[in-house]
């Protein structure tokens, strides 16, 4: 009984921490990259978008930042590009946005 209770609350705590990390990520991205950020976009998604769609300094910045981000998110290969695609799909469904 105690193990089930502990598992349930540990899972809840992990979910809350993950939601908090994503919210802080979006806030920091919005503050640092206000002219370029889109709705519901994380820093990872922005870097993925820049790596796929931009040339010049934005593309170079993304190509430098992506290996660092992907190193932190080691359990998901190609994290930034996957995040960009998922966020783009979410914006299309929620807001009808197109690229």
Please provide a brief summary of the model:
This protein has 99 residues and is mainly alpha-helical. It has 4 helices and no strands. It starts with a helix and ends with a helix.
Features:
99 residues; mainly alpha
Structural description of this entry:
The protein has 4 helices and no strands. By secondary structure, the protein is mainly alpha-helical. The mean pLDDT is 90. The chain has one domain.
The major pleated sheet works out as: none
Unreliably modeled segments: none
What is the percent of helical residues? over 70%
Cα end-to-end separation: 51 Å
What proportion of the residues form beta strands (DSSP E)?
under 5%
Helix tally? 4
Q: How many independent structural domains?
A: 1
Whole-number radius of gyration? 16 Å
Oligomer: single chain
How would you state the average pLDDT, rounded? Answer: 90
- Globally, the shape reads globular
Count of β-strands: 0
Instruction: Please state the structural category.
Output: mainly alpha
Order of secondary-structure elements: HHHH
Mind sketching the topology for me?
Elements: H1 2-32, H2 43-53, H3 57-72, H4 79-95
Helix pairs in contact: 2-3, 2-4
């Amino acid at each position: 009984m105690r193990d089930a209770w502990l598992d349930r609350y540990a899972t809840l705590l992990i979910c809350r921490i993950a939601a908090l990390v994503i919210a802080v990520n979006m806030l920091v991205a919005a503050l640092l990259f206000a002219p370029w950020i889109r709705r519901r976009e994380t820093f990872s998604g922005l870097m993925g978008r820049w790596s796929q769609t931009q040339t010049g300094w934005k593309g170079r910045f993304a190509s430098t930042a992506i290996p660092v981000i992907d190193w932190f998110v080691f359990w998901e290969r190609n994290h930034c590009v996957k995040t960009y695609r998922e966020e783009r799909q979410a914006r299309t469904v929620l807001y009808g946005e197109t690229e």
